[in-house]
Write a structure and sequence with these properties.
Helix content is 34%, strand content 18%. The chain is α+β, with helices and mostly antiparallel strands.
Length: 456
Amino acid sequence: MPIHALTSSDSTLAAEHDRRYAPGHLGELTRLLPIEMVDEAVQQTRTLQKRLRGLPARVVVYLLLAGCLFPEVGYPGVWRKLTAGLAHLAPVRPSASALCQARRRIGPAPLKWLFDLIRGPEGAAPARAGVWWKGLLVTAIDGTILTVPDQPAVRTRYVKQAGHHGGTGYPQVRLLALLTCGTRTLIDAVFAPTTVGETTLAPGLWSSLRAGMLVLADRNFDAVDVLTGIAQCDADFLIRGKTSRRLPVLARHQDESFTSRIGPLTVRVIDAQITVTTADGEQRCAYRLLTTLMDPVRYPAHQLVGLYHERWEIETAYLELKASILGGRVLRARTAPGLEQEIYALLVTYQLIRTAISDAAYATGMDPDRGSFTIAWQTAKDQVVLAQHAIDDAAVELVGVIGAEVLADPLPPRRLRVCPRIVKRAISKYQARGPVIDRSCRQARLDVYVLPGEPP
């Protein structure tokens, strides 16, 4: 085959290609979501451009993901972050209108495809500390609310919620997720208008349940359809039960738990009293837990009560998503398809950060709980601006700059603390709980007493 010399025309085309595609990166997180993966997403969803544009589809996908790292600026500002370290390539400077048209052109499909690709129990190898309990992968299901712009195009799908003080000021989206408690990585997520309840959304997660999973959930999920749905997927559950439900005692076990039935399902029931002791005194509350772990010898009642506390990991994940990343802000998109696109981009970005933390913890044997999400998130933002470790050909390392920063300043071992669960941003301008609200955290001691009951 003859060898042709590189002409000036070829060099010009190569330079133009680099100029247009160079902003397609996510800093060091590009190693977890490489360009080949993004190219496959746009190919599979048939959103690849038919001609070379100033904003190729690959670059637009990375723009949407970077937008979740920088929610405080508009998309032109996000573009400046992506190109700040690429001045030597003289990248294009699209207008706000061009960025808007490019986002609409690709739609939500590539972001959903990427989320379906990377979601899963990252770091769920059986040897991982803090992820498994007696051979079971500990997971949790719960929902949260995202606030979206009050625009006519948005209100065609997402509505405002009613309330005693005139309802919410903005339309809202209900997000329901299945999460790995040990690493806080997302296994699956679904979302819908708030007119759809959590238990109605829950079957959308069943396809991600497997044998060997233990699902934790609050008492809102104590519904026959939900319990049987989880059991039919061969997964086990540990769910707080409603005290209003009267359950028959079919058999009493030595640990004071008992066997009962809920619809067609045989369950084990644990009634316990939790005593929380702080410097200010004691507080007691009653808990009823329902589980399909029927062996009281392998799964003692008092251990299951202690394990149920892991359910709060999904609340911490929502705090990271809504408070750390979004900072309590309303989402950007002003159309229903745009919101679907942005929510999937947010879930992908969160999963990438959590994966970076999990990889760093795995490399050193550290409990993933001790990896600071704030440090990882801020370092990921810095790497985007610097455009380092994004387009180089260096070998992929398990612990990169993000992981090194996380390991350099780990969180202290978690202590048992209690904090009042109150509304901090009330709809009403008046204080709902009097003139003085105690929001302080206190160290605590937790005592579990499994309550005896009547024999069958």
